[in-house]
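Standup notes
- DV: blocked on the single-chain target, sequence here:
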Amino acid sequence: MPKKPLIILAAAVVTVVLLAVLGLTVAASRLNQPPEQPVAFTHSFHVSNLGLNCAFCHRNAGQTVEAGMPPVEQCMFCHTVVGAGNPEIEKVRAAWISQKPIEWKRVYRVPDVVRFTHEPHIRAQVDCSACHGQVEKMGVARQESPLGMPQCINCHRQRGAPTDCSFCHY
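- DV (later): unblocked, structure below
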């Protein structure tokens, strides 16, 4: 093989390895560090104390790529009556009055090369905590473990789900 194609091939391999390492480093640095949210929403209170399940707020999880955040209107089902005077709930009420969405910061993200939807996982009865951790014990949602290929492959193998590359990757 001529030298030029070998050099290009070597450069490509080094680039892929560096990008993979950088991606893992960035992903690992986000673990257990929740983004600052516009409203200090407490999952532990809403899930443990009130008994709300994930789908109550994240209604799109079974139909769309992202689980989605609830519209302010949904929060107001309860907070028109509950929480007057609480500064965080007053932020929700202000958003409702101004008819502006709350700009939540994303907590979980899979790499762009992954074709992920919640729907088949919900259909297979994979509990949300398998990927998202024990949200019912979290004050603020944070990514506790990486959502990377090793975790996904292990879970797929344990559940007898497909592990062919084209099943999850574009």
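- Follow-up: The radius of gyration is 20 Å.
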